[in-house]
């Protein structure tokens, strides 16, 4: 069985034993865009995330797996002048304007039937990414892999950092609890609470927990990861958000979901997280659905930690991303591979 699977070109639509698959007949096409942005949180550095990920070969790694990749470069994102805080919320217009550009870009990539890969940037960029994705794929589901719920509102947030609030702008059921920020006039909530699921939570604010319960958002925190184990958990995750197995998947991957042992160069690390090996499994299962439609990779901050920390973080991240795009631990054989044969 392994040999027939391995003789086909590698693709995201790998058939796995645990899931039905809608494997595409040809390798998928991927559109990459860098989002050099850090204004959703107080530390500089995440704006250099796209450059670091590219320097470590993220585009080539995906290409080498047999995927057709178009790199659209980095978005140009400017700070809005005189961007006064809204209550405690910092940089509202700058974050709003940047996300409008992200939305337009991701909408175009996914409308062209490419899988969008967004290289952040802090996690506030997922506002635009999910919004844009939903414009071309309104039936999408969101899998949010993170140590944090990122569900605070401009009213509940203590820090005023928008990277802790992105889902409050996106989830329809959050509308009664939140406030409209200047700079966000373009942004309408676009997913239902039942179309969102969390993996990896371990640092959830009281208000966020209350919103999750009130809106009915499902989560597999680290407690459930420990309780069920990865294979059982991933089956439950996919059955919960998409029992029919047909809908496009928006995967938002905050590198702080992983334990700081694997991704130390990030702004809000929390111990007790996912291992590199657990992330490989999650990525392989998502790839196995053949329905990955957009992947956000966020919160890599090259300015934090030592050179060794930076290297560890970016290497782990690029490795994990390659598994989302078809890399298999059992091995891959490319379409143009020629088996060396003895001379006659
Ligand atoms: Mn996050």
TrEMBL record:
Query: Where on this chain does Mn(2+) bind?
Result: 123, 146, 148, 150, 254, 256
Q: How is the cofactor bound?
A: Binds 2 manganese ions per subunit.
Metabolic or biological pathway:
Nitrogen metabolism; urea cycle; L-ornithine and urea from L-arginine: step 1/1
Q: Does the keyword Metal-binding apply?
A: yes
Q: Name one GO cellular component term.
A: nucleus
Needed cofactors, names only, are:
Mn(2+)
The GO annotation for biological process reads:
L-arginine catabolic process to proline via ornithine; urea cycle
Q: Does the keyword Manganese apply?
A: yes
Q: What is its EC number?
A: 3.5.3.1
**Catalytic class of the enzyme:** hydrolase
Tell me what reaction this enzyme catalyses: L-arginine + H2O = urea + L-ornithine
Keywords per UniProt = Arginine metabolism, Hydrolase, Manganese, Metal-binding, Urea cycle
Pfam families per UniProt: Arginase (PF00491)
PANTHER family cross-referenced by the UniProt entry: ARGINASE
Query: What family classification does the UniProt entry report for this protein?
Result: Belongs to the arginase family.
What protein does this entry describe?
Arginase
């Amino acid at each position: 069985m392994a040999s027939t699977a391995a003789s086909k070109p590698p693709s995201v639509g790998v058939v796995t034993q645990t899931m039905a698959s809608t494997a595409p007949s040809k390798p998928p096409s991927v559109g990459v865009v860098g989002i050099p942005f850090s204004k959703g949180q107080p530390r500089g550095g995440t704006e250099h995330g796209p450059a670091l990920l590219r320097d470590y070969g993220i585009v080539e790694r995906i290409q080498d797996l047999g995927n057709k990749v178009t790199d659209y470069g980095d978005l140009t994102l400017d700070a809005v002048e005189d961007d006064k805080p809204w209550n405690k919320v910092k940089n509202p217009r700058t974050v709003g304007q940047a996300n409008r550009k992200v939305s337009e870009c991701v909408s175009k990539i996914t409308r062209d039937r490419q899988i969008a890969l967004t290289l952040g940037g802090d996690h506030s960029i997922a506002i635009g990414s999910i919004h844009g994705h939903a414009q071309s794929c309104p039936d999408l589901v969101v899998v949010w892999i993170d140590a944090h719920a990122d569900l605070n509102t401009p009213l509940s947030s203590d820090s005023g950092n928008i990277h802790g609030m992105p889902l409050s702008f996106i989830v329809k059921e959050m509308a009664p609890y939140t406030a409209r920020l200047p700079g966000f006039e373009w942004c309408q909530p676009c997913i239902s609470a039942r179309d969102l699921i969390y993996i990896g939570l371990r640092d959830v604010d009281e208000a966020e927990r209350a919103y999750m319960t009130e809106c009915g958002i499902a989560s597999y925190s680290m407690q459930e990861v420990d309780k069920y184990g990865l294979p059982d958990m991933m089956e439950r995750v996919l059955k919960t958000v998409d029992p029919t197995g047909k809908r496009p998947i928006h995967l938002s991957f905050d590198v702080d979901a992983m334990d700081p042992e694997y991704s130390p160069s990030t702004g809000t690390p929390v111990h007790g997280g996912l291992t590199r090996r657990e992330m490989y499994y999650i990525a392989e299962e998502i790839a196995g659905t053949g329905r990955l439609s957009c992947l956000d990779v966020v919160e890599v901050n090259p300015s934090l930690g030592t050179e060794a920390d930076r290297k560890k973080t970016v290497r782990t991240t690029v490795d994990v991303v390659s598994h989302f795009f078809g890399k298999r631990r059992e091995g891959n054989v490319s379409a143009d591979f020629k088996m060396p044969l003895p001379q006659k």
